[in-house]
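Case study 2.
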Amino acid sequence: MDNVTLRLFVHPAEGQEVRSYLSYRAKRELLFQIAPRYREASSALKEVILDEFVAATGYARKYAIRLLNHPVDVKFTIERPRPPHYGAEVQQALHLTWTAANHICAKRLIPFLPTLVESLERHGHLQLSEECRDQLLCMSPATADRMLRSYRKQGPRGISTTRSGTLLKKQIPIRTFQDWNEAKPGFLEADLVAHCGTQAEGAYLYTLTLTDVATGWTECLPLLNRGQDAVIVALKRARQLLPFPILGIDTDNGGEFINIELAAYCEQEHITFTRGRPQHSNDQCYVEQKNGQIVRQVVGYDRFVGELAYRQLTELYRALRLYVNCFQPSMKLQTKQREGSKVRRTYDQAQTPLQRLLASGELAADKHQELVRVTHALDPLRLLDQLEHLQKALWQHAITPSPSPERTPPASMLPFSVQLCSEEKVPAEGITASAPSLLKKERRRKYQKSGRPHDWRTREDPYEGLWEQITSWLVAHPDRTGIDIFHELQRLYPGRYRPTQVRTLQRGIQKIRARLLVTFEDQWGEEVVNGHTPAPELRAEVVGGVF
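Prediction:
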């Protein structure tokens, strides 16, 4: 008998299942290592090897003996005998439609395929036989996800710049995500996205995102700053862009929203104004999802500063609003049921915001026909191609921590042209209301908790005689911050201003900006009405005196 060391092995009880945690590949590798020694071993050693192999793999003893005695060329991957069902033409067509839909998931893509394939065939980007078209339109979401799995990747995340507004919280009611049950278009969620890069200090651009709860219609508007007056001007512009009236807005607790001016504006325009709970971002779940899937995906996480970046971001959003609302389907949560530790969610069929708006029955017949004609005139691939060019043009204005020496920001702006996205004549009425004109400052109703407004000074004004010069600086460069102007004054007047006087300057600049209207002659509606838009001109107007 061979001199071997026998290890004690306890056989499993009769009928007891031996569980193995090895993968199929690991079991086959173990078989290749053990089979030669098993065939050359004695009977006693074979029993020990067999017991160890069964314990490691979980195989039945008879099956394990057959594998060890008659090894075959075992393949590490399991091959199905059936041939592939979808050919190369169908796979290429799926990738093309997925690219035209901006790489959305298959559960959103598959219900939208009939409309998207028809649009791509109408504009000459896709030519399919009847058999391939039937296979493409009958494909399941799981199959499409498997075919597109190798193309997907994950991106970075941004930082939050929301600062709580302490005023008027008791006057503005709280609304949670469970309270949204409006089926009528017009109730919006609003949020700001900061384009500050990795640092929240200094001046940078913002994006005001407005998302309709019922239809998912989304408008993105750039802001030079997050002041309350800039937010109100952007809301006025949004009312002219939206194809339906604003009935209500729901915001977070940031100071740019929770203030007297915005509350008075909503009361004057008969707009329901609500807010979410602090530290509960899911109360604004609709707009938070659009922040990530639209703003962050297209604009990115870089830092953007200044007038040129503002203009280019405006051009990008002109094209983006057409693409997102006409060619980006989304699913809405219908039911949510908890079963133990598992949550079962049920969604409706994926539809674009335009499809949901047309199905709501809230639009007039002529407006309904106009929106349908506009969608048929737009080419999704050409629109996406122009979006990519506008995106690259915007990234040229990005401020990075270590700028490249050979890269210089462009001095001109790349405009959006709807003529490059359509071969047909777009209807004369267009997708939006009349083009916005220069917004005039309206008289606001001010609310005080009690007593007289604090409009007097208790100390001598350290900036007396300089406010006219400061106003001229803001008119020339509306994106300048109080810190920048304070440093400029310290350079012009050495030793005159202490660091503790920065806050006094910032309060004065806030009063100036309340009278300084920064607007664009942007003609947002004209990009669909006439097929072209002039380059926007940044204008500033001071209404009234400085103080």
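DSSP finds 18 helices and eleven strands in the chain.
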